[in-house]
Amino acid sequence: MKKYLAVFLGILSAIGGFVDIGDLVTNAQVGSRFGMSLGWVVVIGVLGICVFAEMSGRVAAVSHRPVFDLVRERLGPRVGFLNLFGSVAVTFLTFIAEIGGVALGLELVTSVYYLLWVPFVAVLVWVILWRAKFSAMENVLGMMGLALVVFGVALWHLHPDWTHLVNQMATADKPHDEGWLVYCYYAVALFGAAMTPYEVFFFSSGGVEERWTEKDIGLMRANVLIGFPLGGLLSLAIAGAAAVVLLPPGISVDTLGQVGLPVAVSLGKIGLGIAVLGFVAATLGAACETGLSVGYSVAQYFGFQWGKYVRPNEAAMFHTLIAVSVAIGAGVLMTAVDPIIVTEFSVVFSALALPLTYFPILVVANDPDYMGEHANGPVANTLGLIYLVLVVVASVAAIPLMIITKMGQ
Amino acid sequence: MTQDYVRPPHPGPIESWPDAEYDAALHLLDRQIVAVDGRLVGKVDDVELTVDPDGSLVPTGLQVGAAALLPRFGGGLGSWLAERHEQIGCARADRTTPYVVDMALVDDVTSEVHVTQPREGLLRRRVPGLEEPTRHTLGQLLEMTVRMPPEVEGPAEATVLDVRISARDGTQRVSALVVGHGRPGSLLGYERSRDQGPWLIAAIVRRIHRHTRIVELGPDVDLVWETGEVRVGPGTVVHQLPD
């Protein structure tokens, strides 16, 4: 019974944990401009994060090695450092966006300007990372993030023409007034939002924190293969609701309030309230995950003690790093930079940085010295190679598309 | 806290430590060092190689810290970083001496390196004795240029990509060098067997490293540390990578 509860809890928090500020903003933006014509990218992205997370989770369970241990062991100190720098920069950018997202969510509830909330949110994140137990943090925030299911309810309540939405998605039927380059730019952004690297850093380091062994591979797979696709459905619901409500009148999404607008139209105040609760929980959870991921990555490269399974004073350098990141992150937000713009940058840079960690994980997941009998089988390797090509293409295309389309304008 | 620490298993062909034979860059360098209390100490930033009275190289310690890590960035960048590190701590006499974990303290190597002491105060610098043996590092060896004579099959000029250490007689010694084009680590572990997937990466790595050979150390192989050269004589035993 306890085991089934663990599976259930894990899946629920994986659903809530999948959606973060990047998914919220990008899916709503894409839905409001392209309808469901980019929905297939979400499907590909979700399958990609399943492949990536399953491999890194399996490596963590069998060899007890998280992502950046493997990056350093396989690529050496020089390339490994470049890798660390790129990945941490993107994760830190995402961290800033998530803190901003929490503050924007609180502004929606209280009508108090979000910049006033930023210092409080930063302190809250720091206290959670310093004091809270790992599993409590993950389960409580993941579970509250499930409030975002309200987007699915809202979409259903709008009585959309389902065949039209599915047809749009299957035929990639983009609106005629949007160009193909902009379409491709948003495809890369959606891909980056679904396959954010920090999710994998957090997932594999969390596996090591919770002392997974070979016996936990089944549980880990259930979390990944059920939780992430259900989270992907949430993403599609956000895009769908935006497609139905925002696309016809041509409303563009530039604020978090506009992301929640379709829910308000469909379900009224109560629905919007639940959606905002979901925003705050999902972004706060993701802020904790990204903040930890910054500490995890740097500590794993240099080899000093990391993790919440030891008391903070036994991992002093790790907690110092997190405290400094929180302070700098809050400082960046206090310059009044728009968190939504930071989010747009972070998802595109995620796509750019993805191959840096994907490639070494794919190599090690095949290495018999680490994996023994649990090395990649033919299915994992076929998918692994297909996604290696996809992540490299998305990474190479990201910056040129960003420049040519002026970030999708 | 200590008792719940579980060591990772030995999943692969490497069973016990010291292993009969292992490639130091692949299996030892950059691995996590874990103390007996399960706490993380640092990475194997470099490996200390001591010249034995009989002339062979024996791995005697794991080097930890910036003084060991920075030169391993390689070439001009590595020495530039090491110089800056020296400059920043110019008041400290021992700033260029890395911390060492003596090889005698290592009791097992799985996917991490286990030592028999607790973390607290584990890292020390070597204090020079009266008759200090000559010491080099694995990092230096991995930077060396290999010059092969035309009689020996293989690339005429190459780099040391990995260093094979065998422990057949109980003492670990450097027994062979994996030499080829590219940088250490560029083999990604694909030199061990052809079966390791995914096929595309394996095929590309094998293609890039088609000239890579294993050079057995012997009387005809001369390691010139001053110039960073390995001079290979005509009578040297050279193997292909295993299939």
Can you describe what's shown?
- The complex is a heterodimer of chains A (409) and B (243).
- By secondary structure, chain A is mainly alpha-helical.
- Chain A is built from 16 helices and no strands.
- Chain A has helices spanning 2-18, 21-34, 39-63, 67-110, 114-131, 134-145, 150-157, 162-171, 180-194, 197-209, 217-245, 256-302, 316-333, 339-364, 368-371, 378-404.
- In chain A, helix 2 (21-34) packs parallel to helix 11 (217-245) and helix 4 packs across helix 10 (197-209).
- Chain A is globular.
- The termini of chain A are far apart.
- The mean pLDDT of chain A is 92.
- Chain B is 15% helix and 32% strand.
- In chain B, strands 1, 11, 12, 13, 14, 15, 16 and 17 form an eight-stranded mixed β-sheet that branches. In chain B, strands 9-6-5-4-10 form a five-stranded antiparallel β-sheet. A four-stranded mixed β-sheet of chain B has the order 3-2-8-7, with no helix packed on it.
- The radius of gyration of chain B is 19 Å and the shape is globular.
- The chains are: A mainly alpha (409), B alpha+beta (243).
- Chains A and B meet through helix 4, helix 12, helix 15 and helix 16 of A and strand 3 and helix 5 of B.
